[in-house]
Amino acid sequence: MGSKDLKLLDVFSYESLVHAVAGAMGSVTAMTVFFPLDTARLRLQVDDKRKAKSTPAILSEIIKEEGLLAPYRGWFPVICSLCCSNFVYFYCFHSLKATWLQGQRSTPGRDLIIGIAAGVVNVLVTTPLWVVNTRLKLQGAKFRNEDIQPTHYNGIIDAFVQIMQHEGVGALWNGTFPSLLLVLNPAVQFMIYEGLKRQLMKGVHRELSSAEVFLIGAIAKAVATTITYPLQTVQSVLRFGQHGQPTDQSKLLNSLRSVMYLLINRVRKWGVLGLFKGLEAKLLQTVLTAALMFILYEKIANTTFRLMGVKRTMTAH
User: Fold this and answer.
1) Which of 49, 148, 271, 303 has an alpha carbon 20 to 30 Å from 102's alpha carbon atom?
2) Helix-helix angle 75-101:3-11, to 10 degrees
3) Which residues cross the membrane (predicted)?
Protein backbone atom coordinates (compact mmCIF):
# COMPACT_ATOMS: atom_id res chain seq x y z
CA MET A 1 0.00 0.00 0.00
CA GLY A 2 1.50 3.38 -1.10
CA SER A 3 1.95 6.52 0.97
CA LYS A 4 -0.99 8.18 -0.84
CA ASP A 5 -3.26 5.30 0.18
CA LEU A 6 -2.09 5.57 3.79
CA LYS A 7 -2.79 9.32 3.84
CA LEU A 8 -6.25 8.70 2.37
CA LEU A 9 -6.93 6.16 5.11
CA ASP A 10 -5.90 8.78 7.72
CA VAL A 11 -8.40 11.27 6.26
CA PHE A 12 -11.27 8.76 6.05
CA SER A 13 -10.45 6.84 9.22
CA TYR A 14 -12.79 5.36 11.82
CA GLU A 15 -10.86 7.20 14.52
CA SER A 16 -11.49 10.62 12.92
CA LEU A 17 -15.20 9.78 12.63
CA VAL A 18 -15.38 8.85 16.34
CA HIS A 19 -13.67 12.12 17.29
CA ALA A 20 -16.10 14.08 15.08
CA VAL A 21 -19.24 12.41 16.47
CA ALA A 22 -17.98 12.71 20.06
CA GLY A 23 -17.14 16.40 19.55
CA ALA A 24 -20.54 17.13 17.98
CA MET A 25 -22.48 15.30 20.71
CA GLY A 26 -20.45 16.89 23.50
CA SER A 27 -20.87 20.42 22.13
CA VAL A 28 -24.62 20.06 21.52
CA THR A 29 -25.22 18.83 25.08
CA ALA A 30 -23.00 21.51 26.64
CA MET A 31 -24.56 24.33 24.58
CA THR A 32 -28.07 23.20 25.54
CA VAL A 33 -27.19 23.42 29.24
CA PHE A 34 -25.67 26.92 28.98
CA PHE A 35 -27.74 28.32 26.09
CA PRO A 36 -29.34 31.24 28.06
CA LEU A 37 -25.85 32.64 28.70
CA ASP A 38 -25.26 32.80 24.94
CA THR A 39 -28.57 34.63 24.49
CA ALA A 40 -27.44 37.31 26.96
CA ARG A 41 -24.08 37.64 25.18
CA LEU A 42 -25.67 38.03 21.72
CA ARG A 43 -28.11 40.73 22.87
CA LEU A 44 -25.26 42.79 24.34
CA GLN A 45 -23.20 42.45 21.15
CA VAL A 46 -25.93 43.28 18.63
CA ASP A 47 -28.15 45.78 20.50
CA ASP A 48 -25.80 48.74 21.03
CA LYS A 49 -28.47 50.69 22.95
CA ARG A 50 -28.74 48.01 25.64
CA LYS A 51 -26.76 48.90 28.74
CA ALA A 52 -24.01 46.49 29.77
CA LYS A 53 -25.12 44.73 32.94
CA SER A 54 -24.37 41.46 34.70
CA THR A 55 -25.52 38.31 32.94
CA PRO A 56 -28.26 37.50 35.50
CA ALA A 57 -29.61 41.06 35.14
CA ILE A 58 -29.73 40.82 31.33
CA LEU A 59 -31.49 37.43 31.48
CA SER A 60 -33.94 38.79 34.04
CA GLU A 61 -34.80 41.68 31.68
CA ILE A 62 -35.26 39.32 28.73
CA ILE A 63 -37.57 36.99 30.69
CA LYS A 64 -39.57 39.92 32.09
CA GLU A 65 -40.07 41.55 28.67
CA GLU A 66 -40.34 38.50 26.38
CA GLY A 67 -41.39 35.53 28.48
CA LEU A 68 -39.86 32.61 30.37
CA LEU A 69 -38.73 30.71 27.26
CA ALA A 70 -37.13 33.75 25.57
CA PRO A 71 -33.56 32.80 26.69
CA TYR A 72 -33.97 29.58 24.64
CA ARG A 73 -35.27 31.34 21.50
CA GLY A 74 -33.48 30.03 18.43
CA TRP A 75 -32.17 26.93 20.25
CA PHE A 76 -32.90 24.46 17.43
CA PRO A 77 -31.09 26.28 14.57
CA VAL A 78 -28.15 27.01 16.87
CA ILE A 79 -27.89 23.35 17.87
CA CYS A 80 -28.11 22.23 14.22
CA SER A 81 -25.38 24.71 13.25
CA LEU A 82 -23.21 23.78 16.21
CA CYS A 83 -23.56 20.05 15.57
CA CYS A 84 -22.52 20.43 11.91
CA SER A 85 -19.78 22.93 12.74
CA ASN A 86 -18.13 20.83 15.46
CA PHE A 87 -18.44 17.64 13.43
CA VAL A 88 -16.59 19.32 10.54
CA TYR A 89 -13.99 20.91 12.87
CA PHE A 90 -13.20 17.80 14.94
CA TYR A 91 -13.11 15.60 11.82
CA CYS A 92 -10.76 17.96 9.96
CA PHE A 93 -8.55 18.56 13.02
CA HIS A 94 -7.99 14.88 13.78
CA SER A 95 -7.74 13.66 10.17
CA LEU A 96 -5.22 16.43 9.30
CA LYS A 97 -3.31 15.65 12.50
CA ALA A 98 -3.14 11.94 11.68
CA THR A 99 -2.09 12.66 8.08
CA TRP A 100 0.68 15.09 9.06
CA LEU A 101 2.06 13.43 12.19
CA GLN A 102 2.05 9.81 10.93
CA GLY A 103 2.43 8.53 14.51
CA GLN A 104 4.93 11.21 15.62
CA ARG A 105 4.50 13.35 18.73
CA SER A 106 2.68 16.64 18.17
CA THR A 107 3.87 20.13 19.19
CA PRO A 108 1.98 23.36 20.05
CA GLY A 109 3.06 24.88 16.71
CA ARG A 110 1.70 21.94 14.75
CA ASP A 111 -1.54 21.94 16.76
CA LEU A 112 -1.98 25.66 15.96
CA ILE A 113 -1.42 25.20 12.20
CA ILE A 114 -3.75 22.17 12.06
CA GLY A 115 -6.35 24.07 14.08
CA ILE A 116 -6.23 27.03 11.69
CA ALA A 117 -6.58 24.76 8.64
CA ALA A 118 -9.53 22.91 10.19
CA GLY A 119 -11.08 26.25 11.13
CA VAL A 120 -10.88 27.63 7.59
CA VAL A 121 -12.66 24.55 6.19
CA ASN A 122 -15.28 24.80 8.93
CA VAL A 123 -15.97 28.52 8.29
CA LEU A 124 -16.39 28.12 4.53
CA VAL A 125 -18.73 25.14 4.93
CA THR A 126 -20.90 26.22 7.88
CA THR A 127 -21.13 30.07 7.79
CA PRO A 128 -24.59 30.03 6.05
CA LEU A 129 -25.96 27.97 8.96
CA TRP A 130 -24.60 30.47 11.48
CA VAL A 131 -26.00 33.46 9.57
CA VAL A 132 -29.47 31.86 9.59
CA ASN A 133 -29.32 30.87 13.26
CA THR A 134 -28.22 34.39 14.29
CA ARG A 135 -31.26 35.85 12.49
CA LEU A 136 -33.65 33.28 14.01
CA LYS A 137 -32.23 33.69 17.50
CA LEU A 138 -32.81 37.45 17.41
CA GLN A 139 -36.24 37.25 15.77
CA GLY A 140 -38.92 38.64 18.05
CA ALA A 141 -36.40 40.16 20.44
CA LYS A 142 -37.18 43.56 21.97
CA PHE A 143 -34.27 45.83 21.07
CA ARG A 144 -33.31 49.13 22.68
CA ASN A 145 -32.03 50.29 19.27
CA GLU A 146 -35.10 51.40 17.26
CA ASP A 147 -33.17 51.35 13.96
CA ILE A 148 -33.11 47.54 13.97
CA GLN A 149 -35.81 46.18 11.63
CA PRO A 150 -37.84 43.12 12.72
CA THR A 151 -37.53 39.93 10.66
CA HIS A 152 -40.17 37.32 9.86
CA TYR A 153 -38.77 33.85 9.16
CA ASN A 154 -40.75 30.62 9.48
CA GLY A 155 -37.91 28.29 10.35
CA ILE A 156 -34.48 27.43 8.95
CA ILE A 157 -35.49 26.69 5.33
CA ASP A 158 -37.65 29.81 5.04
CA ALA A 159 -34.81 31.93 6.44
CA PHE A 160 -32.43 30.53 3.79
CA VAL A 161 -34.96 31.26 1.02
CA GLN A 162 -35.79 34.80 2.20
CA ILE A 163 -32.16 35.79 2.65
CA MET A 164 -31.28 34.54 -0.86
CA GLN A 165 -34.31 36.24 -2.42
CA HIS A 166 -33.98 39.62 -0.72
CA GLU A 167 -30.25 39.92 -0.07
CA GLY A 168 -28.62 37.55 -2.54
CA VAL A 169 -26.76 34.26 -2.04
CA GLY A 170 -23.65 36.14 -0.88
CA ALA A 171 -25.53 37.34 2.23
CA LEU A 172 -25.40 33.77 3.56
CA TRP A 173 -21.65 34.28 3.96
CA ASN A 174 -21.99 37.61 5.86
CA GLY A 175 -19.28 37.82 8.49
CA THR A 176 -17.02 35.32 6.69
CA PHE A 177 -13.99 37.62 6.84
CA PRO A 178 -14.01 38.08 10.64
CA SER A 179 -14.94 34.39 10.91
CA LEU A 180 -11.78 33.47 8.98
CA LEU A 181 -9.77 35.68 11.35
CA LEU A 182 -11.57 33.99 14.23
CA VAL A 183 -10.28 30.54 13.27
CA LEU A 184 -7.55 31.61 15.70
CA ASN A 185 -10.07 31.10 18.51
CA PRO A 186 -10.50 27.31 18.22
CA ALA A 187 -6.92 26.99 16.97
CA VAL A 188 -5.52 28.68 20.10
CA GLN A 189 -8.04 26.77 22.24
CA PHE A 190 -6.97 23.38 20.85
CA MET A 191 -3.27 24.32 20.97
CA ILE A 192 -3.52 25.16 24.69
CA TYR A 193 -5.81 22.19 25.43
CA GLU A 194 -3.59 19.66 23.63
CA GLY A 195 -0.43 21.20 25.16
CA LEU A 196 -1.79 21.03 28.72
CA LYS A 197 -3.09 17.53 28.03
CA ARG A 198 0.36 16.40 26.88
CA GLN A 199 1.92 17.81 30.06
CA LEU A 200 -0.56 16.00 32.30
CA MET A 201 -0.08 12.72 30.43
CA LYS A 202 3.71 13.00 30.19
CA GLY A 203 5.23 9.56 30.62
CA VAL A 204 1.90 8.06 31.69
CA HIS A 205 -0.63 6.46 29.30
CA ARG A 206 -3.89 7.07 31.10
CA GLU A 207 -7.25 8.76 30.70
CA LEU A 208 -7.52 12.20 32.26
CA SER A 209 -10.00 12.65 35.09
CA SER A 210 -13.15 14.73 34.51
CA ALA A 211 -11.79 17.46 36.81
CA GLU A 212 -8.53 17.66 34.82
CA VAL A 213 -10.36 17.83 31.48
CA PHE A 214 -12.76 20.48 32.83
CA LEU A 215 -9.89 22.62 34.13
CA ILE A 216 -7.68 22.55 31.02
CA GLY A 217 -10.73 22.97 28.76
CA ALA A 218 -11.83 26.05 30.74
CA ILE A 219 -8.33 27.60 30.71
CA ALA A 220 -7.92 27.02 26.97
CA LYS A 221 -11.28 28.56 26.09
CA ALA A 222 -10.92 31.53 28.45
CA VAL A 223 -7.60 32.57 26.87
CA ALA A 224 -8.84 32.05 23.29
CA THR A 225 -12.12 33.93 23.89
CA THR A 226 -10.53 36.98 25.57
CA ILE A 227 -7.97 37.39 22.78
CA THR A 228 -10.52 37.22 19.95
CA TYR A 229 -13.64 38.77 21.55
CA PRO A 230 -13.68 42.12 19.64
CA LEU A 231 -13.77 40.21 16.36
CA GLN A 232 -16.53 37.95 17.70
CA THR A 233 -18.65 41.05 18.34
CA VAL A 234 -18.08 42.28 14.76
CA GLN A 235 -18.92 38.81 13.47
CA SER A 236 -22.28 38.79 15.31
CA VAL A 237 -23.20 42.26 14.03
CA LEU A 238 -22.33 41.35 10.42
CA ARG A 239 -24.28 38.08 10.57
CA PHE A 240 -27.32 39.96 11.85
CA GLY A 241 -27.08 42.02 8.65
CA GLN A 242 -28.22 45.40 10.01
CA HIS A 243 -24.93 47.24 10.57
CA GLY A 244 -25.78 49.90 7.97
CA GLN A 245 -22.52 49.90 6.06
CA PRO A 246 -22.73 50.66 2.30
CA THR A 247 -21.62 47.83 0.02
CA ASP A 248 -20.30 49.73 -3.00
CA GLN A 249 -16.85 48.12 -3.11
CA SER A 250 -15.48 44.68 -3.89
CA LYS A 251 -16.41 41.90 -1.47
CA LEU A 252 -12.94 41.71 0.11
CA LEU A 253 -12.50 45.49 0.44
CA ASN A 254 -16.02 45.85 1.75
CA SER A 255 -15.40 43.11 4.35
CA LEU A 256 -12.21 44.81 5.50
CA ARG A 257 -13.97 48.19 5.56
CA SER A 258 -16.94 46.81 7.53
CA VAL A 259 -14.72 45.18 10.15
CA MET A 260 -12.64 48.36 10.62
CA TYR A 261 -15.76 50.58 10.63
CA LEU A 262 -17.50 48.50 13.32
CA LEU A 263 -14.38 48.27 15.51
CA ILE A 264 -13.61 52.03 15.26
CA ASN A 265 -17.27 52.99 15.73
CA ARG A 266 -17.47 50.89 18.90
CA VAL A 267 -14.30 52.49 20.32
CA ARG A 268 -15.64 55.99 19.53
CA LYS A 269 -18.93 55.28 21.32
CA TRP A 270 -17.71 53.45 24.43
CA GLY A 271 -13.92 53.56 24.37
CA VAL A 272 -11.67 50.50 24.19
CA LEU A 273 -13.81 48.71 26.78
CA GLY A 274 -16.70 48.89 24.29
CA LEU A 275 -14.90 46.23 22.26
CA PHE A 276 -15.40 43.88 25.21
CA LYS A 277 -19.08 44.65 25.88
CA GLY A 278 -20.73 41.35 26.81
CA LEU A 279 -17.40 39.62 27.54
CA GLU A 280 -18.55 38.56 31.02
CA ALA A 281 -21.58 36.76 29.57
CA LYS A 282 -19.46 35.31 26.76
CA LEU A 283 -16.75 34.04 29.12
CA LEU A 284 -19.29 32.55 31.51
CA GLN A 285 -21.08 30.79 28.66
CA THR A 286 -18.16 29.77 26.48
CA VAL A 287 -15.79 28.63 29.25
CA LEU A 288 -18.43 26.48 30.97
CA THR A 289 -19.70 25.15 27.63
CA ALA A 290 -16.20 24.32 26.35
CA ALA A 291 -15.17 22.67 29.62
CA LEU A 292 -18.30 20.50 29.70
CA MET A 293 -17.96 19.78 25.97
CA PHE A 294 -14.38 18.52 26.41
CA ILE A 295 -15.44 16.26 29.30
CA LEU A 296 -18.25 14.72 27.23
CA TYR A 297 -16.04 14.52 24.14
CA GLU A 298 -13.26 12.66 25.97
CA LYS A 299 -15.72 10.30 27.70
CA ILE A 300 -17.69 9.52 24.51
CA ALA A 301 -14.52 9.00 22.43
CA ASN A 302 -12.78 6.83 25.05
CA THR A 303 -15.91 4.74 25.66
CA THR A 304 -16.50 4.22 21.93
CA PHE A 305 -12.90 3.16 21.30
CA ARG A 306 -13.07 0.78 24.29
CA LEU A 307 -16.40 -0.79 23.22
CA MET A 308 -15.25 -1.25 19.62
CA GLY A 309 -11.90 -2.64 20.71
CA VAL A 310 -9.98 0.06 18.86
CA LYS A 311 -6.79 1.36 20.47
CA ARG A 312 -6.87 5.14 20.60
CA THR A 313 -3.78 6.80 19.18
CA MET A 314 -1.78 8.26 22.07
CA THR A 315 1.18 9.64 20.09
CA ALA A 316 -0.96 12.47 18.73
CA HIS A 317 -1.22 13.87 22.21
Assistant:
1) 303
2) 160
3) 12-35, 74-92, 112-132, 171-192
